[in-house]
Design a protein that fits this description.
- With 90 residues, the chain is mainly alpha-helical.
- It folds into two domains: 1-49; 60-90.
- Helices cover 84% and strands 0% of the residues.
- It is built from four helices and no strands.
- The protein has helices at residues 2-44, 49-59, 63-79, 85-89.
- The protein is elongated and about 75 Å long.
């Protein structure tokens, strides 16, 4: 009898976890739709959404992480005979 109780409890836990994940997935889908609408609004107002996405990405990183990324980008561009990113910006 105790084994059946454990199984029933585990099934209930599993069901609760699955339902929570499903709810969160729905929320994520809704939020993704909201974000898409904001990008559409930005585009309608004349902003470049590709650059806006890059700005959002850069803001998530700390200064040292951004500097390291820029340095690696410069190394890769130099290896390909292309101007460094800072030179191209000037």
């Amino acid at each position: 009898m105790a084994e059946k109780t454990k199984t029933t409890f585990a099934q209930g836990q599993l069901r609760a976890l699955v339902e929570r994940i499903e709810r969160l997935e729905e929320e994520k889908k809704s939020i993704a739709g909201d974000i898409k609408e904001v990008y559409a609004e930005a585009k309608a107002n004349g902003f470049d959404t590709k650059i806006l996405r890059k700005v959002i990405s850069l803001r998530k990183k700390d200064a040292s992480e951004r500097q390291e990324e820029e340095a690696l980008l410069d190394v890769y561009l130099a290896a390909l005979g292309m101007p460094e990113s800072r030179e191209a910006a000037e």
